[in-house]
Amino acid sequence: MTGERSLIRLRVSAHDAHYGGGLVDGARMLGLFGDVATELCILRDGDEGLFRAYDSVEFLAPVYAGDFIEAEGEITEEGTTSRRMRFVARKVIQPVKGHDSHCDVLKAPIIVCRASGTCVVPKDKQRGPQRRSPWDLDAILWCSDPAETARDLQTVLDAAVVQPLSKGTAVVRVGRALFGLHEDKGLEEHFGASATGRTRGLGMELVCTVLDVESVARLAEAANLLLRAPQDKGDGQTECALKLRDGYVLVVRGQSAKSG
After folding, report:
1. DSSP state, residue 35
2. What CA–CA distance (Å, rounded) separates 73 from 33?
3. So what's the pLDDT on residue 40?
4. What is the per-residue pLDDT for 185?
5. Best CA proximity match to 255, nearest among 55, 60, 96, 97
6. Where are the alpha helices (DSSP H) in 24-121?
7. Residues sharing a CB contact under 8 Å with residue 83, sequence separation 6 or more, in sequence order
């Protein structure tokens, strides 16, 4: 199931510092990618799998003790047992130099590392895609036709239908957001009451973050779903907007290709 994504966030501790000035060894980022890869294998196959090899690694910016790092990965290709993946690590918070407790939330995340590689899940260990917990949902959307909305998202964003719960219901991974789709307005009984947002009205704006905004925009334009072309928002960020069924607007954000 290509398009499956995983994201973890943590603070780099002083114990991770390996060089002078609190500089962290680049291998720490590869360790995070290994954890992301393990989760991707579990989500896709119900097994931790084995990391076979990296075929590309780029260290793009320094990481220091105290930085907050987001490590994200996605499955880009599948074979019978192989799962090809790509990864990116971003610095999102950093300490203020000269202060013992001040930190800055970065206006634009800094890409510190990129990589791609392949994991293997033996055929006898594969158990199929694993069901997502309803408590992970970012929003619950009422849709006149959840299946068609899910197909639109898959066509444009390579979104993953994580779990079809029942007739007229689906959970869809879009970038780093997890949306519950349902054709009935009695949503809580299907998804639980713990979603961070519940969208019942039409014309609502949703937000997701992806790795490549420009590619999403090209696919959306071809599918007649592009509402606003990619715009440079400053600080290395790009944003476009899609028009979905039932009046929803999906804002797609990501790192500008020029800044990568």
Report:
1. H
2. 7
3. 94
4. 54
5. 60
6. 27-45
7. 40, 41, 44, 45, 49, 75, 77, 118, 119, 120, 121
Which pairing describes strands 103-120 and 50-59: parallel, antiparallel, or unpaired? antiparallel
Contact 135, 194 (CB under 8 A): yes
CA torsion sign, 222 to 175 to 57 to 22?
A: positive
Identity of the amino acid at 115: A
Q: What are phi and psi of 215, to 5 degrees?
A: -65, -40
Token readout for 12 is: 């780099």
Which segments of the chain have a pLDDT < 50? Answer: 135, 187-188, 192-202, 260
Burial class (CB in 10 A: 0-12, 13-18, 19+), 151: middle
- Give the containing element (helix H, strand E) for 190: helix 188-191
Q: What is the pTM of this model?
A: 0.59
The token pair at 62 is 């320094």
pLDDT at 201: 41
